[in-house]
Amino acid sequence: MAGRTTLNAAILAVIALGGVLLGFAAWIWFVPPPQFPMAQIVPIEKGESMRIVADRLAKAGVIRSPLPMVLYAQLTGTGRKIRPGDYAFRGGERIPQVMAHLVRGDFIVVTVAIAEGLTLHQVSERLAAAGLVCQPEFEEAARKGTLVKSLGFGPLGAEGYLFPATYRFRPRARIDEILGAMLARFYQIMTPATVHRTFELGLTPREIVTLASIIEMEARAPGERKLIASVFYNRMRLNMPLQSDPTAKYSFEGATEPVAAAVRIPSTFNTYAFAGLPPGPIANPGLKSIEAALYPAHSDYLYFVARDDGTHVFSRSLREHEAAIAMLKKTSGRAPVESTRTSMPISR
Description:
Layout: H1 2-30, E1 35-44, H2 50-59, H3 66-76, E2 85-91, H4 95-104, E3 110-113, H5 120-129, H6 135-144, H7 146-150, E4 166-169, H8 175-189, H9 192-200, H10 205-218, H11 225-237, H12 245-249, H13 259-262, H14 287-294, E5 303-306, E6 312-315, H15 318-332
Antiparallel strand pairs: 1-2, 3-4, 5-6
Helix pairs in contact: 2-3, 5-6, 10-11, 10-14, 11-14
């Protein structure tokens, strides 16, 4: 009789323990952790195991215990579908909801718009303003870093190859990741057919990008890019200096001088001082300017001068060009910048 009583007591103890464990499991599963006063940032790295991910979430208080999440991931097969990134959790969610964020990739992203015609210096300013990089470190990497050296950019670095687009980066993206994303977008358009076209024109891919960067900085009306390109090709064919103001104003550090002063400052980029292209791009051109450099219009224009609305008057001779300047001076009531430098042909 005593033995049966002991057995019954043991059974009851096991049932009670099972009830406690079941209740604890139900609490873990059905009762979410409390919401946080501030979002908890949890980084998930590529290739990390589900156990490591679950441990990190538990330490951050996003889930109550790692084991149920590991079991859930195994049962549902979702452990192999989580996406790396930096996640912001506010608490108050059960395990399936937390896992859904990881599978959908609801991680934090920093969106940065890089416009056409920005210099490398200006791109680094945009990235620094978004909190992604330390500006001097990015510029150093873009000029002299291992990645740009491996791609053969030489001493001038990646200027011209940081393709203008809207990018989405994780907050802790490394500089090489950011550079790699921009360069990858550029090389998407430099197909074998594009490279072949550069050789048909008698230029190297770098020279095409350099010319495209000048077109980008000169053109304000999109429809004029190919005409502006034709002016520069005609001048190169005749061994005339390109005499492009943006080349005279270009500097690595982003310093700017008034045009009238800049054109008189000797530099390896100032195309008032020599015939042909400068040693490298002066900005990062967009697709339309690259296309204009590859497929210029057919014209015999050698000059252009800007109207107040950003469009240009194109001329075939210096006489026509000077007449255009005089006309614009008369109609606008002010002299175009170019009219102060009639001692030599000018291309604006």
